[in-house]
Amino acid sequence: MGWNRSEIVNLRHAAHLHDIGKVGIPDIILNKPSKLTNEEYAVIKEHTVIGAEILKNVSIINHVTEVARSHHERYDGHGYPDGLKGEEIPIHARIVAVADSYDAMNSRRIYRNSLPKETIYEEIRKNRGTQFDPEIADIFLRLMDENRLTITDTYLEIDDEPALPGMEFEISNFISNVMNTMKSQEEVENFDLLTGLPMRNTGQKMIAQLMQEHNGCLIFMDMDNLKKINDIYGHKAGDRALKALGALLSEHIGNSVGCRFGGDEFLLFVPDAGKNEISELMETLFSRFDSEKKKDFEIRVASISAGLCMCTKGDSFDECSSKADKALYYVKQNGKHNFFFYQQMDNTVFPVSSVAKDLSLVAKALRNSGNYSGALNLNYREFSKIYEYINQLGERHKYHCFLVMVTMETAPDSMMYIENIEQALEYMEEAIRHKIRRIDVCTRYSAMQYLIILFESDESQIPKVMDRIFIQYYKLYDKRDFIPKYEYLPVNEHSEETNPQNTSDHLNQDIHPV
What we know:
- By secondary structure, the protein is an alpha+beta fold.
- It has three domains: 5-187, Hypothetical protein af1432 (Orthogonal Bundle); 200-368, Alpha-Beta Plaits, CATH 3.30.70.270; 376-510, Reverse transcriptase/Diguanylate cyclase domain (Alpha-Beta Plaits), CATH 3.30.70.270.
- It has helices at 5-16, 27-30, 38-45, 47-55, 64-70, 91-106, 117-126, 134-145, 166-189, 200-211, 226-233, 235-252, 275-293, 317-333, 354-369, 380-397, 418-435, 462-476, 493-498, and strands at residues 216-224, 257-260, 265-271, 303-311, 339-341, 376-377, 402-410, 441-446, 449-454, 482-490, 509-510.
């Protein structure tokens, strides 16, 4: 185009930063392996405006702001963000538009390989005068004809250039620092520190690329009962369960690609493996995880469910992940802690009545999802709903139910240390959960109190129940600075009629260390 060296170097500097606005686009959209929705595409288009805003005060590189803002304008006026037409579009942006399109077509994407040179040539030729400036497009096609396009990994520096003057060296150094910072930040954000696996966006991208080159199996894996572990034992326990599964996947995936897909979900692609090999791998993972969780009492209720989809080279990531997800849903409906191939669903024989099938599967899923050890431990809001339900149930069916309050009182002349308080409360909660029945319910009521609903209980047995709880508490907590006491009353009027004794007779009963 007859430009001098200084103009060309300036264009190169501006071109390096043309897509910097993508730092403001959510990764889940930027790295989406399937087709964007209209709403997502509208968000993507904002990167031109964001980039111009970021670079608006960068004065050491001429034309950098207009390149960032206008490189998606079209020669026919149908581009964005401003709908500029023809020579209204800055010349630097018109050049970058052609180069950027070539680079996109010449690069491998997560949903396709790079396009053949003939296809790229034809696309640029067809779009001269509409998408591209016709003069620039013709020059670019001539460069392709003469095989004069060279793209290398060291494009930030050109070896045969003379030494850069001071200002140009400063510009080049500035660009290198920006790009290195973005690259290092991207690497930090791309891995989950808890499990050591890639995060969702990076993992999806790697898997989708691998699927374009290999047959294999896409595995959608879910950890069961993580919420229950978090609710009962805290998020540190839940983190240990996730970490154990992440370590297991890292150990066994070999040449596979895996990632943490979400909170308790994982995605894995195993290339070049048949159904029998995949089944053996899953059985090994299930067995090893069962062994690992037995080492930690607080995560023992965790289990794995998985949906699998056998894939053929070039299959759509979006379609295969949807199929694997359906297979996982089938596992969830049928009791969890298992794996199932999507391809098996066509051969599965279901009952004639779809309603009966659905209802039985739901009932089975509810039974399994409700598995818990010891008492049903709820937060106070959920506890209050259960209390009202049991109250109505008791009035209708004449059940005997009792509400018990356990209060942790400070022993006379004892010093209250926060560590001791927390430890005592933790042991009391554990004693309650494991010494009342699975049909009973408990909750933390206040800083030093617990509430218990004893369902269908004989009133004469309440002292024995509380004895068991307090004895267990003193086994766990050998100090004498907090003394548990309890009081109780009937949940509904029917219980009061059956037990006319005044509830004040039950107040302040306590048990001392045995």
